[in-house]
Write a structure and sequence with these properties.
alpha+beta, 6 strands, about 45% helix
């Protein structure tokens, strides 16, 4: 059985990530921090696609509430529960449904807590780490490319 090696990455003296491997030798880690303000701004925005999805969902639930969208595998009790849930969700009309959808999007997509540095990826060379650091996720902000340490 191959020996497991543990690697760790430090940023400003604190360990921000660890990783184990049986076959790879990591030399560098890409340390990022999430841009919470950008995440929260995106969560609070309402795009044309969001509007289109909400209207489709409202129409689908309206059809269900009116007895459509029947499934043969459902029992009568399950169907009645699904219809009652759909009726409750469309209560107040399209505008109320969209307001609830906006509130749900904000609550589920906003960044909760304080952002902390984290390792986004590990690399086997400084060159590859530098290359990978130029293609981060949308809300990542590069802090540093650090050398990995064997623990």
């Amino acid at each position: 059985m191959a020996k497991t090696t543990k690697f760790l990455a430090r940023y400003n003296g604190e360990i921000v990530g660890t990783r184990t491997s049986q076959s790879m030798a990591y030399t560098h880690a890409i340390v990022v921090i999430i841009d919470a303000a950008a995440v929260n701004a995106a969560a609070a925005s309402w795009t044309k696609a969001d509007q289109k999805d909400a209207v489709w969902s409202f129409n689908h639930k309206t059809n269900t509430a009116n007895g459509g969208n029947l499934y043969t595998y459902e029992t009568d009790a399950e169907r009645a529960e699904r219809v009652a849930k759909a009726k409750a969700e469309i209560e107040g009309g399209l505008d109320a449904f969209i307001e609830r959808a906006k509130a749900y999007k904000l609550e589920t997509r906003r960044y909760k807590g304080e952002p902390k540095p984290l390792v986004r990826s590990w690399s086997q060379s400084a060159r590859n780490a530098e290359k990978a650091s130029r293609s981060l996720y949308q809300y990542d902000r590069l802090l540093a490319v650090v050398e990995a340490e064997r623990a």
